[in-house]
């Protein structure tokens, strides 16, 4: 039995989270620091992810199961400034309390014995959260921060103080907590570049989470000018820090420091950071517009260094239009401003020199870090339209000297990264499905897109409707942007308050009406943007039938080759739409990824389960995709399928095709002189990819072992062998029937056929037999509506003759199959070979596929003539060897191709040789080796050394003793026998010495031993 302490040690050493690993070698100069893999502060135990502070029993899986005496924890480990996660398991068997009864029992799922009736828990096993997820999200919903050199001073960031290159950098951030994930969004100043990384830190400066920022960003970030991301699965302890507003965020840039020496100038690369504190703001829940304020031209730079402000703006377009502005700012105070400092807030149209609002606020006690202020005012409808079109600026300045201390910035869409999406489901009695999405770009324009499917009309009408009022007011008509009634993209350059207010409230509906009666309807709902949504378009998942289901999914592949996805489905049954873990075993949904080499008939499908879930929303990622799978996804031949599983019964719900761009570093690599194949299937998949060995030929795929006739040429028969399609030319057997009974090959066939009675060449000595598996078929598409036979999936008209096709060897020309024109039976008799007149050892086949072996041809040499000898009609091979060899003096010289075609053999020296030819091999350094004879037979060369039996060696030895001459034929044996005698002589001497040694030893020891030679 495995010791519990040993198992615990295994877990301590082998199952620690990713935070426990470290890079063991220094990065190369060419390595990109930005490509360092992201390591979350969480533990990985088997295939499960555990957050910091969680406790559980070790589950070893089958056959061991859960080890209730091994308690595991995910604990934080401090490494310099970073906090990483590590799994720590220990044996709690020795910690069991002593039972207070005489006969304790061990209950199931327990490690310690207890008294009957005692059901107290042994350890705290992932205590349930005191707050529900909804309550926690309400308390942690919205946060904001302002980042500048002034907000970073209290954390003692020496780099920001000593490095003036980032002193003017400013940024404003928004944070949204949703489903245990913290989504962040940043707006950067006009002169502030994108940071290289981002860190979440606590009040002591410990790094809780670090993420690398993409220097380019995706489609959404480029269109909006924002920086977007997410911290997934925030641990419970860190959520507490966030709730207490003790969490900080730090943006890090790579800067260059120049040092002036007496004769040289040196530049060094370093990192500098700016930090801001996450804080709650009530106005964030209704924020519609934002602004990042920076020092303007003409201000006092010595006093305004690091000054900045962010504005949270919301409007109301009801009966009394109004605006509400919340400001967080610093740096607009003089040194003598200590208490009750007046400031001016202005909203104006700079181009038209038109002031919408001028208000004065008073700051009771100014702070060097962050100050807060609010402004409320009534506005006209025209002013609200200017606000939504990005034409206004907001300014906050000191009333003492508004030119020396002044911050200003344009008013644009709110800072948070969010997209609005809608599932368009059919109303009762109609069919079809669709999706729509929209977002506000950096200029305030509303960009939108839509995808429709299953509509019974090519010219539907698409409108935006305000669902928040009773009359369902129509706001915009988007029909003109549709292409072929299926897809559409467009931009509303000037969205007014009547459109934006229901959009932010989640009351803006999309309605698709068809003149034939179909109606699709859905609402645009706000969703935070992370990796998957940072792309240009989502993809539609269509229902498998007319069940009213619809799905929308965003996908993206990052630089680490990780596929991120965000799925939303609608119209699902209640049993699978309930996001409750208690019903997980009864009903659930599964998301599958399917890829294939080519969109062709019969293509093999590689299927992978991505995740099993409940509810209508799923966010996740998958790692370990092979380069082949990523190549296929990049090529647009990937599919996603949603299946419902209820009591082991699977039902197809949704499926759709998608295409997502993959980085070049994730795709298969080629050498410089290689050309990437257009055919994805030409790339060999990894061993981990489960795929059947199918073959692609012409326009479709064929399974392993299948044979077929090529569509382009009926005289080509093909088969699939180990994933490779091989084709052979169809050989037509001879037919023996009168000309009037011969017919040309019907369409789709290669060889002529005999009509009427069976062909004359069908008769054989052995009675024919019907081939198993053949069946009678009538093909109405063949010429003359001939009846016929089917063998191995191939149709043959009545009266046809053919050689059977036996993959992978090809056609068997030693058998002729015939479809009897009367009985429609298939018979395949084999060719009968004549009796050989020579020894079977010397018989050869004229070619590799010859059915029968033949005796070598021997010719007679004429006496005193010069004409070529005639071939021996008997062919018995009984002529003397010298006469047979002289035949080559008169025979016409054949080409190497002809020799090899007749079963000849290739050979480095003197080849090629005829089939049946014998010769002595030659070596450059020794000449001809008489003791070795080679022979060519049916394309194969076999060489043997002359064997010298012991009787011949004894005879040669006796002849040498008598001084007699050794015949030339025995020269090979003379050398071999001499070498053999020398070997036996050495063996005898060694054996004699060994016997003497053993004799001396036996004189001391009376025990006698016998060798095998003595026994013989």
Structural overview:
The protein is built from 15 helices and 60 strands. By secondary structure, it is mainly beta. It folds into 7 domains: 113 residues, no CATH class; 147 residues, Immunoglobulin-like, CATH 2.60.40; 136 residues, C2 domain (Immunoglobulin-like); 121 residues, Sandwich (Immunoglobulin-like), CATH 2.60.40; 118 residues, Sandwich (Immunoglobulin-like), CATH 2.60.40; 98 residues, no CATH class; 69 residues, no CATH class. The strands form 15 sheets. Strands 23, 24, 25, 26, 27, 28, 29, 30, 31 and 32 form a 10-stranded antiparallel sheet that branches. Strands 14, 15, 16, 17, 18, 19, 20, 21 and 22 form a 9-stranded antiparallel sheet that branches. Strands 37-36-39-40-33-34-35-38 form an 8-stranded antiparallel sheet. Strand 34 and strand 35 form a beta hairpin. Helix 13 packs across helix 14.
Number of strands: 60
Cα separation of the termini? 56 Å
Q: Could you please say which CATH topology of the largest domain applies here?
A: Immunoglobulin-like
The main pleated sheet reads as: 10 strands, antiparallel
Low-confidence stretches: 1-35, 124-131, 156-160, 671-690, 758-785, 859-891, 997-1016
Domain unit count? 7
- What is the CA-atom radius of gyration, in angstroms? 44 Å
Highest-level CATH class of the largest domain: Mainly Beta
In terms of DSSP E residues, the strand content is: 35-45%
